[in-house]
Amino acid sequence: MNIVDENIESIESKDLFEQFRTKEFEIDENYKYVRKGFVFNLLSNILYYCIAYPILKIITKIVYDLKIEGKKNIRDFKGGAISVSNHVLVLDCAM
Predict the structure, then answer these.
(1) In whole angstroms, what separates CA 45 from the centre of its chain?
(2) 0.90 exceeded by pTM
(3) Which residue spans within 4-94 are E strands per DSSP?
(4) What is d(CA 10, CA 92) in angstroms, rounded to the nearest whole number?
């Protein structure tokens, strides 16, 4: 029996659910889902609008030649909308 066979047998003998068990934790009614502190919001907005957004805008334009068609239709739209992506590119979230 070689090393590969031994590893396969050891994996098969273990319960897969035991290997991938999630960590148990409790969230009470006081858990802060969204931080509301002024400093946190200021720094996260600076990070997003001054650093991440310009860099991603340039990358999506240069690498993928991103063009948005019908942008005026979005501005005139009243109510809610859903955007669906099939995630075929690494930078789908930036687009």
Answers:
(1) 17
(2) no
(3) none
(4) 39
